[in-house]
Amino acid sequence: MKIHIAIDIGGTQMRAASYASDTLTPIKINRIQSQVSGVQPQQRLVEVIHSVIPKDKSIEAIGIAVAGPLDLESGVIQKSPNIPAFDNFPIVDFLKLRFAAPVFLGNDANLAALGEWRYGSGQNHNNVIYLTISTGIGSGVIADNRLLLGARGMAAELGHVIIFPGGPKCSCGKRGHLEAIASGTAIARWTSDQIRQGQNSTLKGFQDIDARIIAEAANNGDSLALSAFERAGEALGIALVNFLVIFNPSCIIFGGGVSKSIDLLLPHIRKILETQIFESSYYQDLILETAALGDDAGLLGALVLARESLI
Ligand SMILES: [Zn+2]
């Protein structure tokens, strides 16, 4: 029996799993720390893959989800945001050589979109937008039943669309991007700034305010915390108005830590959609959902990639 291997590489952990065909239950699954002193992350990667290959099984294909930017044509991680040793790493050739199997590479947010579309909240939709809102905002787009990649595999970086020109600085260094206004980090930064400027809040005096604590305060009626989510929700609404007219999705999926507070965001998102979209049919049957697969979305997206050899 042949198996597929799925790998999800994060800055903290690498996960690998082996799957027989037609099941989402792994034969073997393992996670290890990505970076330990004295061992190259490349070596860690080989180790974690070996640990999930069952005896007497040969590999049909390997799918990898990793943060980019990636060069999908040559199979190279151009720049790794959290594993410096993976900068300019030709991961596809490296693994092909060691495991004698086809290897397919994808951006982690794109593959999370793929996973949610095939096995999660996006099933039975042909046009899906997936947004993962946590420290940053990642995304993937399924357009007319396929993962949208673009000319250089760089399509669907929806966290970096401009919402307020000249607005707050984004993690990418530019200003006014969606991520700089509506990510968990941005919500926390705005709230802390407001408190510093003298706004009243039950969060006054708190160290290390994060989006989860602000959500808790908002649910307890704190008006500054409610305003923080209103501001983020409106920014998301403006972004979604633009995404709807570009992609015309039937389903939008919210993942990431901030999506646990989606009830605080949705009224503001809906208000903007209802009032700002030029044609209401974009919005009428639109489904706004939270992600179903949690942390497994990237891994299962890598499995889809290996099974269907999409890239
Ligand atoms: Zn940006």
Oligomer: single chain
* Ligand kinds: zinc ion
Specify Rg, calculated over alpha carbons: 20 Å
- Global outline: globular
Alpha plus pi helix count:
10
- How do the SSEs run, as a string of H and E? EEEHEEEHEHEEEHHHHEHHEH
**How many runs of DSSP E, i.e. beta strands?**
12
What percent of residues adopt helix (DSSP H or I)? 25-40%
- Biggest sheet architecture: 5 strands, mixed
Q: CA-to-CA gap between the ends?
A: 24 Å
| Overall mean confidence score, pLDDT | 95
- β-strand percent reads 15-25%
Supply the helix-strand structural class. Answer: alpha/beta
Question: What is the topological layout?
Answer:
Blueprint (H helix, E strand, L loop, with lengths): L1 E8 L3 E7 L8 E6 L7 H10 L7 E9 L3 E2 L4 E2 L13 H9 L3 E5 H12 L8 E6 L3 E7 L2 E2 L30 H5 L1 H13 L14 H9 L3 H25 L3 E5 L6 H15 L4 H4 L2 E4 L6 H12 L3
Parallel strand pairs: 1-4, 4-7, 8-11, 11-12
Antiparallel strand pairs: 1-2, 2-3, 5-6, 8-9, 9-10
Helix pairs in contact: 3-10, 5-7, 6-7, 7-8
The protein binds zinc ion (ZN).
The site of zinc ion has 6 residues, from loops.
